[in-house]
From TrEMBL:
Homodimer. The keyword Nuclease does not apply. Keywords: NADP, Oxidoreductase, Porphyrin biosynthesis. Residues 6-156 form the Glutamyl-tRNA reductase N-terminal domain. InterPro entries: 4pyrrol_synth_GluRdtase (IPR000343), 4pyrrol_synth_GluRdtase_dimer (IPR015896), 4pyrrol_synth_GluRdtase_N (IPR015895), GluRdtase_CS (IPR018214), GluRdtase_dimer_dom_sf (IPR036453), GluRdtase_N_sf (IPR036343), NAD(P)-bd_dom_sf (IPR036291), Shikm_DH/Glu-tRNA_Rdtase (IPR006151). Residues 226-360 form the Quinate/shikimate 5-dehydrogenase/glutamyl-tRNA reductase domain. It comes from Nocardiopsis rhodophaea. Pathway: Porphyrin-containing compound metabolism; protoporphyrin-IX biosynthesis; 5-aminolevulinate from L-glutamyl-tRNA(Glu): step 1/2. Possesses an unusual extended V-shaped dimeric structure with each monomer consisting of three distinct domains arranged along a curved 'spinal' alpha-helix. The N-terminal catalytic domain specifically recognizes the glutamate moiety of the substrate. The second domain is the NADPH-binding domain, and the third C-terminal domain is responsible for dimerization. Belongs to the glutamyl-tRNA reductase family. The active site is at C50 (nucleophile). The record marks H99 as: Important for activity. It is an enzyme of class 1 (oxidoreductase). This is Glutamyl-tRNA reductase.
Amino acid sequence: MSVLAVGLSHRGSPVALLERAALDGQTRLKVMAEMANAAAVNEVLMVSTCNRTEIYADVEKFHPGVAAITELFSWHTGISLADLTQHCYVHYEERAVQHLFSVTCGLDSMVVGEGQILGQVRNAIKDAQHTGTIGRVLNDLGQRALRVGKRAHTETHLDHAGADMVGLGLVVAGRHFGPFGSARIDAIGSCGAESADAPARCPMGGNEALAEPTADVAAAVPQPQVLTGARVLVLGAGSMSALSANTVARQGASTVIVANRTHERAARLAECLTEAYEPIQSHAVPFEDAAGLLHEVDLVISCTGAQGLVLTRAEVESALERKSCGRPLVFLDLALPRDIDLCVRDIPGVHLVDIEDLRQAAAEGADAASGRSGAISVVRDIVEEEVAEYQAVRRAEQVAPTVVALRSKAREVVDTELSRLEGRLPDLDDKTRGEVGHALRRVVDKLLHQPTVRVKELAAGPDGDSYEAALRELFDLEPTAPGAVSAEHGSAQSTAGETK
């Protein structure tokens, strides 16, 4: 059994392919269940964000595991195996662990250091637990990844040094704001807003309970007022949409309208904004009424998770006929699949910024990361240290079944010899027989104690599997034989490799 990672991300896949790979919630759960039922696969965890879809699995063997996962993923997404093979990456064992830790720390994000990914990985683990596709191996790995991510952000403040997807999106969209467009691509680091700085009552993720409001939140978190007077429509009320609403409020927007299919959630978000950013005007509207408000706003931010278009060209053109001022209408589409019809780019006075634009902007602004290169280097060191520690624990666990098998074999030898002794000395009284048996077991336990402790220590180091193999060979052990392994011990893996 070994850890395997198969994925598509912004680093090597076109947005059109990422859109096809983005599965809705129910389909994602179904796919995970089918993968976990494959003969070569034991456990499955799927991480899906606006710029990546990754499957982590505990597999029996490498090649059958890759085949099972890619074939099922191809079937459900409609992506041919040829296209999947061309763009996907595959990591195995140590490299798979390293990749998950790097992803959770934000090192592999489009905007390096963004903090949203930590919550997204947490939600992926919860989904897998709910579906029953995650077991001891991936649950331990996932929980360790969350701890690594928290440690990286706590010790380096990497998320404070850089922007997030929303901040980067507003920088790029700001080029089209006219009087609002003072931000430049080299200001990426100054326009981000971390979820940790959001108002305490804001529903930033999942169904978490709302905390009490924080006083003077807006004053406590200064932001460049690049959106002063702007009127903003936010489509959706999930974590990314809530982050977007808070960011534009901090940057001086005068009005924030929230539209969501669950009206109560939109109303809660609007209420949070009103309380935290006075004198901002914020209110919720039914989702189906959003298109009718396009002529009243300057900026539309959309991240709904819908599988089809939320706004079409016809709806945008109709809205522009009623738009009185000469300001442009700017769309920031953070969704995958896209929410906004690409054809709106052909409409005069309309500007659309989507994931593809953000990817290009992130590449152009790569030099902006130079100011936080020290933090990035420290996070990489943290990942390397945590991977080594995780692998050491796994190697130590790998030898446990062999140690159990050795002790089981020793018990069998003692029991056999006691039976022979009883046959030779049938008149031995029970007390003497018990003392003899106890003495024999103590001798065996003492003889085995130091070697078994030492082999566990050696197994945690490099090439530790060789000690476990030597123990099996010397004593002719079968750790996988029925009864040889106790329920508290599980097998682990230590070999590593990578393929593309």
